[in-house]
Design a protein that fits this description.
Blueprint (H helix, E strand, L loop, with lengths): L13 H12 L1 H8 L4 H13 L5 H18 L7 H12 L1 H4 L2 H10 L1 H6 L4 H10 L2 H10 L2 H10 L2 H12 L6 H10 L18 H9 L3 H14 L1 H10 L11 H10 L2 H8 L4 H9 L3 H13 L5 H20 L16
Helix pairs in contact: 1-2, 1-3, 1-4, 4-7, 9-11, 10-12, 11-14, 12-14, 12-15, 14-16, 15-16, 18-21
Length: 341
């Protein structure tokens, strides 16, 4: 079933993929590429750059990976060398933005089993993870996107969740031997390379991203158990978790974009337990009439269940993170803001 699935970037036309690639490179590098195109091609790609939208981080990875594969297939100059790819993307994206992205591209190219997991249903992955060694499960959760990892965590028995997230948080890279073990479990073969460099998977940031996607009830229990097991690590993870009140760090332009994507009912619920400073920030970025109506609704709305408020806040955070991954807004210092591409 996974083999029949289409990669995110495959639904885009060639011109759109070229536009995504250029937008990923930045102004200076994109300009250098455009200099070598004909006027007609510049017009086509330029138009696509203004129109392309809803580009997820996963889709950007697919486009960049496809580009490097095509370059490797069409040249005899060694441009497919891992070090060349690494240096090129770091120069294009910057050290901070590149982060673990490059390792995901290079690892994903040879890790067909891991890539196949991304197309699997969460319950199927949870069933597999439940039966395997916790360290292997931690590697799998580190490789998946945070939203998918959170789905898997929520489907696992309660007594497994905290232990696995602790292992993810303390995962210090992955040696080739560990990847080979994972390969045997999934009954796949890595095409691999002989390099001994660790792949950057796991760590407190990965756990914070996963926890950001969990339901508040599960999040609270997991954080209590992690902190009880390792107080210092628990504090570090908590500092990286992006909570609703952290939205005050979003600039005015970003806040306006976020508010356009949120229904008034969800916003009303979410603000029932929000910090006063955040409320004022939101009022400031609405029209005067809309802000007045929201104030009145907040004042007249009776008591609501805390679980309903937390669920509404979570939904808005999911929208905020999606917009951040698309590059539409910046979440600031938390939520992995420096890693957007």
């Amino acid at each position: 079933m996974a083999d029949a699935a289409r990669a995110p970037g495959e639904s885009r036309s060639g011109v759109e993929r070229a536009a995504i690639l250029l937008l990923s490179l930045g102004e200076k590098e994109a300009a250098e590429v455009l200099k070598h195109l004909s006027a007609k091609d510049v017009q086509k790609v330029g138009t696509a750059m203004t129109q392309v939208g809803n580009v997820s981080r996963t889709e950007v990875i697919e486009v960049l990976s496809a580009f490097t594969s095509e370059v490797e297939a069409q040249t005899s100059l060694g441009l497919g060398n891992d070090e060349f790819i690494r240096n090129t993307l770091i120069n294009a994206l910057g050290e901070d933005k590149a982060g673990g992205l490059i390792d995901r591209i290079l690892l994903g190219r040879s890790s067909k089993g891991l890539e196949a997991l991304k197309w699997m249903d969460g319950s199927a992955i949870a069933e597999m993870v439940r039966l395997e060694h916790p360290q292997i499960a931690a590697i799998i959760l580190s490789y998946l996107e945070p939203e998918q990892s959170a789905e898997v965590i929520a489907l696992l028995p309660e007594n497994m969740r905290s232990e696995l997230l602790l292992r993810v948080a303390t995962l210090d890279g992955v040696q080739p031997a560990a990847l080979q073990e994972l390969d045997q479990i999934m009954e796949r073969q890595f095409s691999g390379s002989n390099q001994t460099r660790k792949s950057v998977l796991g760590g407190p940031k990965v756990v914070a991203s996963i926890i950001n996607m969990l339901e508040p009830r599960i999040e609270s229990v997991v954080m209590q158990e992690i902190t009880a097991a390792d107080e210092q690590l628990g504090t570090k993870i908590q500092d990286l978790i992006f909570v609703f009140d952290n939205l005050i760090e979003v600039d005015d332009r970003g806040m306006q974009e976020l508010l356009r994507q949120v229904t008034s009912d969800k916003l009303l619920l979410a603000l029932k337990a929000a910090d006063d400073a955040l409320k004022e920030k939101i009022f400031k970025n609405m029209s005067q009439r809309a802000a007045e109506m929201l104030r009145e609704d907040l004042a007249s709305r009776g008591p609501v269940k805390l679980s309903e408020v937390e669920a509404a806040q979570k939904e808005i955070l999911v929208i905020a993170r999606k917009l951040a991954e698309e590059g539409s807004i910046n979440l600031g210092s938390k939520g992995g803001g420096e890693a957007y591409v």
